[in-house]
C-alpha cells in the first residue's frame, strides 16, 4: 500500500489544482451571466 | 426576456432576479428606429454632456488592469434578446479606442472598457444609437459593482468549502466503512494529515466572515449567531488537529474534519441564498431609484432648446419629453397628447392618456408622442421621491413581533452558550473528545436565525409584492394589524364615489321630454368646465350616441353664451324650426324653478317662458365599489360608512353599494367617537379615507388606508396608501396580510419546534456536528423560502357584481 503515500498527496494537490481553475472561472465572471454561453449559438462569427 | 405587452413594467419587475435596469418598453424599439433619422443631432447634444471627465466617475471606474482606461457601466434600452446583445457588442467593438465590451442580455447591462486618449463616451454611445438602441450611463455603478464583488467573493468561499468538503469526505470514508484494524496506523495518519491540509483553506478562508463578525461581537460585548458558530468551528478544528498530530493526547485520535467542512459548506450555502434574496429586494428598489433620466431638453427664454443635466432642472422650466423617456419632474403638459405608463408609481397597468393641462409625474414613462411639460416639482418634492422615501423607510421599520423575537434572541444565545459549556463538563469525565463534540453540536444546532428571520422576511416580501400593485406600506407593523381587523369603515367622499357627478333624474315641464331638456341644457353646458356642466354634457352625448344622432348634437351651438359667476349660464339657441330659445342654466333661483325634495344636487334649466327642467345629479359611484363591498363582506368583515355628508345622500350611496350601516352628518369628532366606541366593544377597526381630512380618525383606527392619487404622500398618516385609487386592491391587501400573518406564524412555529427538538438531542449527544450544521442551514432556508411565497405579484380579484351599477335613469315628472 505504499502507493498511497503518492496518491493521497496527489489528490490533495489535485484539489488545489481544481480550486485554481475555479478561481479563474469565478473571477472572470463566468457564473454571473449563465445565459450568455447558450446564446453564443446565435452569433455570426 | 419575455415581456408581456399589457404591462411591461410589472412583468419587468417580476423578472427582477437579474434585472435592475431601466425597463424595455415594448414600443421603444420601434420608436427608437423611427426616430433614427432625426437622432444624430439631438442625441449628440445629450451625449456631449458625458464627455466632461467630471461626469465619468458617476458611471465609470478607472480600469485596474490597464492604466489610463476607464470601465463604464451602461444600461441599454431597446434590447430584446440575445441577438441585440451581439449586434451591440459588434457595434461597440468597431469604435476605435473601445478595448472590450461585455453585455448581458438578461440584465440589459454592459461594461465597456475604453481609453480616453482615443475616444469619448459620446462617441461609442452614438455608435449604439446608430443601431437603434440607446445607451444610458448606469449611475449606480458603484453600488452595483460592490454587490457584484460581494457575490463573487461569496461564490468563491462557497466553492472552496464545497471542493474541500468533498475531498475530506473521501478521506473520512475508509474510517467509517472499515473494521477496526483493517487500515494500518500509518495509512490512517496519512488520511488525517491530508484532511487537515484541506481543512486549512476552509478554516482560514471560507470561515473568515464568521470569525470576523464573532470577533466584532466580542469586542462590542454583543452576542449574535456568529459567536457560537465560530466557537464551534474553532473547538472542532483544534480537537481534530490535536487528534491528528498528537493521537496520544487527552482528546484521543478521533478527528472531525468531515463534520467541520460539511457544516461550513451548509452554512455558507444558506448565507449565499440569503444574499441573493437580499439582492433581489435591493434590485427592486434600485429599479425605482433608477427611473429618472440623467439629462433633459430645456427651453431657453429665446425659444431654443438646450440639453441640461437633471441636476440643473428647476421649477418652472419647460422641457421636452420624447417617447420612451421618463419624466424628470412632476409637471403639467403644455402641448401634445400622449400615453403614459405609471405602473410602478400608481399600480395602474394600462397606459393612460395625457393631454395639454394634465399632470404628469416624475418617474413615469412617456410612451407615444413628444410632449412639452412645465415642471412644477423637482427632486425631493416630487411624488416619485416621496414614494422612494416611503419604500425605504418602511423596509427598515421593524414589526413588533420581530422586536419581540430580537429581545429574546440574546438571552437565548447566552443560555445556549451556557448549556454547551455545561454539557462539556458533564461528559468530560467519560470522554473528553466526545464531551467537546457534544458541546460543539449544541453550539451549532441552535438556530435563532430562523426565529429572527421569520417575521421580517415574510413582511418584506409582502410589502414588495404590494408595492408592485400600487399599495405602499408605511409601517410593516400594519400588515400584522390588518390581518386581525373585523370592521372596515368607509369615509364616503372620495372612497366609494368618484369626484364626478352623474345625472340621476330629470324633472320637466309638461310637454318637454327629458331628452329634449337634456339636449338644450348641454348646448350651454359644453361651454363650461364646471363638474356639473361636464356631467350634463357627458350624459347628453351618451344619450345622443345611443340614439345615433351625435352629429346633430355636436352641430347644435348656442350663441352669446356667458357665465354668471355663482349663478349659472345663459345663451341663445336657434332651433331648426326657426324659433330662438333664450336659455338659462343654473341654480333654482336663477331659473325661477320650483324646488324638488331630494338629497341630490339640483340644477335647473329655464327659457323666457319660465322653468323648463330640473336635473338631479348624483355623485358617481366607483364602478368597482359594489363588487368590492360584496367581496369584503364575504371575507367576514363588517362594513360601515361614516361620513360628513348629508345623512340622506350617505344612506343612498351606502345602500347602492350594499352597506346597511351608514351614518351621515358626522364631523371628525363624531367619527373619532364612533370609532372609539367600536374599539371599546372589542372590534378591530380599519378606516378607509382620502388620507387628508380624516387625520385624527385615521390615526385612531387600528389600521388606516388612504385612497386616491391626489394624496400628498408626505402628509398622509395612513398605514397603507392605495396609489392607483382603485378600491379593488383593498381586497387583495387584506387577503395578503392574512396570508402574511399565517406564514409568520408557521415560520415562528417551525423555528420554535426545531430548536425545542434539536437542542435536547444535541445535549444528550445524539447529534453529530455535521447533522447539526445541516439542520441549522435547512431551518433558516425553510423560513426564507416560506416567506418568498409571499413575494409573487397580487392577482387582481375578479369582480362579479359589476352589473349592479345602475345607469342614470330618466323619469319625467
UniProtKB/TrEMBL annotation, chain A:
Keywords per UniProt: Membrane, Transmembrane, Transmembrane helix
Membrane-spanning ranges: 6-26
Transmembrane helix is among the record's keywords: yes
InterPro entries: Cyt_oxidase_maturation_cbb3
Pfam families: FixS (PF03597)
Lineage per the UniProt record: Bacteria, Pseudomonadati, Pseudomonadota, Betaproteobacteria, Burkholderiales
Transcription regulation keyword on record: no
NCBIfam families, sorted: ccoS (TIGR00847)
UniProt-recorded name of the protein: Cbb3-type cytochrome oxidase assembly protein CcoS
Superkingdom of origin organism: Bacteria
